[in-house]
Amino acid sequence: IPYIGTNLVEWIWGGFSVDKATLTRFFAFHFILPFIVAALAGVHLLFLHETGSNNPSGLNSDTDKIPFHPYYTIKDILGALIMISVLSSLVLFTPDMLGDPDNYIPANPLNTPPHIKPEWYFLFAYAILRSIPN
After folding, report:
1. Beta-carbon-side half-sphere exposure of residue 30 (alpha carbons within 13 Å)
2. Catalytic amino acids?
3. How confident is the model at residue 53 (pLDDT cuts 50, 70, 90)?
4. Does the record bear Mitochondrion in its keywords (predicted)?
5. If you ran DSSP here, which 8-state letter would residue 67 be given?
């Protein structure tokens, strides 16, 4: 940003370079931001309940509305019960269905099996380790 760019960067960094002050500031911002968003969403809901929604077209749209509580509440509860029952049946009746069968091999801290590979998000580190002999 012209004229204020360097001053703005130094203010955000907390100095002339990225340092401990920068990490502290960004961690605090990272921690406080969800609370600010939740508070703004609460204020938004409060204003919606106080004044109602705006209708810029001016047409009466009350004819095609369904009340939320008896219809959608029951549908949400029924959907949640179905999902909980499916998850519970998977966990209680077939606990090994989604697991890896290699998890039942007894561990040997002195010998790593050759077929073990890390998950996809650790493959870059695994490739670095494999490139170094012994």
Report:
1. 6
2. 49, 53, 75-76, 119
3. confident
4. yes
5. -
